[in-house]
Amino acid sequence: MKTIGVFDSGVGGLSVLRALLLEIPEARYVYLADGAHAPYGERSAQQVAERAQRITARLRKDHAVDALVVACNTATAQAIESLRQQHPDWPIVGVEPALKPAAALSRTGHIGVFATRGTVESERFARLRTRVESESSRPLHFNSQACDGLADAIERGDETTTRVLCARYLDALRAHASTPEPMDTLVLGCTHYPFAADILQALSGPDVRLVETGAPVARRTRAVLGLPEAHPSDGATPQITLLSTGDPTPLTQAAARWLGITVGATHINV
Predict the structure, then answer these.
(1) Domain boundary residue among 212, 228, 247?
(2) Which of 2, 13, 60, 132 has a Cα-to-Cα distance from 105 of 20 to 30 A?
(3) Domain, as residue range, for 54
């Protein structure tokens, strides 16, 4: 049984874990939420890189994970290159806003992107956007919006604030669009945001398609581990360990609410 480490600043990475459980049910998972230092999206690149390095070293040393999934867009943007340099012999899978899948799905080429400030302002995101635009056979219009506070509201389970912020940032996205054409695709560029998908869909309307990154990340993880395709008849049951550097209660509650997992999270110092 392979062991897969997954970490995020908080509970948002559970959206990636959800996809991993569907794609690779025959694995053991160690999910670490860095709750004591969340959210990452409004921290400096140096702070995020330092946290990512400490967590990665701890997961590899204490839990003997066979692969690491950085289930955080901000940590991927600001730390994954240094992590791969420090662990060249070890598979590390990151997440990034699903610009390429969105470009393929969009009918009009007008695409909105919701992400944290740390992601939107990163060089990695700029390179991704340039690459997707250059590879496209038609004009693409990406309109990015930094959603300060949204991941934190979702983390806390504050539905009222989540709804207010979603409405505010959708209005801002439309107001600052580079063209008058309405967007038909919205990229959820933070792993927390899929847990607000119902709110975002209701606010944006039925003509806007929401795109997240969990499924492609899960498929990539299976590939780097060299695992064969699983079959429903296999009856595999994943083993899950939940860890948090902060109060473990929110992680326990979020895993139960969003994934139906009744596993108590444990506090850990990293």
Answers:
(1) 212
(2) 13
(3) 3-94+215-267
Q: Is residue 86 located within the same domain as residue 219?
A: yes
What angle do the packed helices 45-63 and 73-86 form, to 10 degrees? 60
Are residue 106 and residue 198 in the same domain, yes or no? yes
Is the pTM value of this prediction over 0.70? yes
**78 shares its domain with 138:** no
Annotated active-site residue 166? The verdict is no
Q: Which of 19, 170, 190, 200 is catalytic?
A: 190
Q: How crowded is residue 187: how many other Cβ atoms within 10 Å of its Cβ?
A: 29
CA dihedral 42, 82, 90, 225 (to 10 degrees): 50
Binding site, annotated residues for substrate: 8-9, 40-41, 73-74, 191-192
In the chain, which ranges are continuous DSSP H helix?
A: 14-23, 45-63, 73-86, 99-105, 117-120, 123-135, 150-155, 159-175, 197-204, 214-224, 249-254
Binding-site annotation: residue ranges: 8-9, 40-41, 73-74, 191-192
160: domain CATH number is 3.40.50.1860
Q: Which member of 72, 147, 150, 188 is catalytic? A: 72
What string of pLDDT tens digits covers the 270 residues of the chain? 899 999 999 999 999 999 999 999 999 999 999 999 988 877 899 999 999 999 999 999 999 999 999 999 999 999 999 999 999 999 999 999 999 999 999 999 999 999 999 889 999 999 999 999 999 999 999 999 999 999 999 988 899 999 999 999 999 998 887 667 789 999 999 999 999 999 999 999 999 999 999 999 999 999 999 998 866 556 677 899 999 999 999 999 999 999 999 999 999 999
